[in-house]
What does this fold into?
Amino acid sequence: MNLSINSFNVWYLVREKTYRRILDDDYIKYRYLFVMNILAIGAHPDDIELGCGGLLIKAVRQGHDVFMYTLTRGGASGDPTQRSDELKRSAHFIGAKHLWIDNFEDSKLSVTTDLINHIEYFINKASPDLILTHSHGDIHHDHRAIASATVEAARFNSNILSYEIPLTRNFDPKIFYDISDVVYEKVELIEIFWSQQSKLYLKANAIKGLAEYRALQSRLNTGVKYVEAFEVLKMCFDKDFKLLTIPYEKIKNLNVETNLNEILEFV
It folds into this structure.
């Protein structure tokens, strides 16, 4: 089953944050504004932006809260300080509520208790209604490790999707999100990562080409020219076909807190 999403207000009405009463001359209208917490997880600076940057830009504009957690500082492909600075600018461009930059060694990630504990700690911090992470079938072993660790760390969460980047193989999309109105802003977002400009998959034609191909694949109407595609790792609906979030007790994780001084946090 393929799902096509045009508005978070259709599929993602999961938490009521604001209740507004509007008085009119003849009648009373009640308007509900539902806000999601969305946590995007990536291995390296630019992964989140490549995979779901368009969705995050639109989510913030619709009033949802976006949290970003990157596990490494990209030291295998450049200066970690420069790449972290680029990541800060990208989070500001998106309008993210929080950005957390961890300090795992680039290209050395594997599914360990430490990795799972760190991811779980920031899942608890963000209290996400929706988690976006890497695909199990990605060609980069760091990405595959995070995909597997996220599923374990998010075992009490109801909704997890995997995103792709232009290099991802064996991707089996089930959800298509229209980014036609922000595709050029996504290109501008990726251009923030100037230190990686030599990589062909960060070029505008690669970003737009993948989004255009997925739009064609989605078989939506001709007005949808660019989409971001996602695999479903876990998704739960309530009786009204809204995304279901099940509250659970957050357990203090002492294994993670010993290393928190290495993590950069930006609000």
Confidence is low (pLDDT under 50) at residues 7-32.
